[in-house]
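GntR family transcriptional regulator
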Amino acid sequence: MTTKVKHIVRDIENQLTDKTLVVGNQLPSLSELCKTYKVSRDTSVRSYKDLLARGVITAIHGKGYFVAKSNPLIQVNLFLLLDELSSYKQVLVNAIVNGLVDIKGEYQIFFHHYNPSLFHNLVNDSIGKFTHYVISPFPNAPEVESALKKIPEKKLILIDRHDELDMDHNFIGQEYFEDIVNSLRQIKNRLQNYTRFVFIFPEPSYHPQELKSGFTKVCKELGLTHHILSNTNTMKKGDAFLVIDDNDLADMVEKCTENNWELGKDIGIVSYNETRLKSVIANGITTLSTDFNAMGEALIENLENKKSIYIHNKSSITIRKSI
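Structure:
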């Protein structure tokens, strides 16, 4: 690095340190840089190239150069966009945040609540302000895919789900069809003790549709009488349930208490997504869940991976007295 390049780089870094420049600020064009520092275009290019290589700034085609990190010593400035904050997603967030502390990274977290316009606006407003984009998308919304395509491919990691998007992407998360089939096979003998196996799948819903096809496949394979319903209204003694919404789970436990039904004998329940509460309520609720802590740790380990990544964070069954 020549003396002139070092001077420009250090000057920009100093402006970041004293907050003259902050994340998202647009930097001078190459021509403006030449005039300000009285240097050649080649020197200006090499100065920005150094800052780009370290993720301090980012370049947006047709717009220019922008500050990506508030601290030049920080290697990661993460844009984290999730669907909503639940107790199990909090485990994921904690793993990511704790991991960023270890690598001296920064982050901002947002939630889209399955709102296409909000999703689009949050992503659009973030372009050029971060070194990495970690996003949980959702299907059947053109705004989602169009927003994601604005993010440089190497900077984008889809987390938890990817919903067959028509684009190349890095991914760390669940494969719902495969996971539900493999997990329910493990409790075949327990499920066969019940009259029917019912999947309570709320509609309308942004829950992955692959869950329904996986449920149907494994039930046919195991010879189980099965149904997919949107509510618990027809709940009766002898049923086993797979429940995805915790409000439905609460209703079912309450109905068991009202009718003096014994969980694990008169009624069977498997609940999606492990939480600490499910390990203690009603003497323990069996769960089908991915490991959200492991998902967050895998993300941190792969943030600086220059190659395309695909990590299937598998799910498993935790058997308790409810089935």
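The domain at 77-174+292-314 is CATH 3.40.50.2300 (Rossmann fold).
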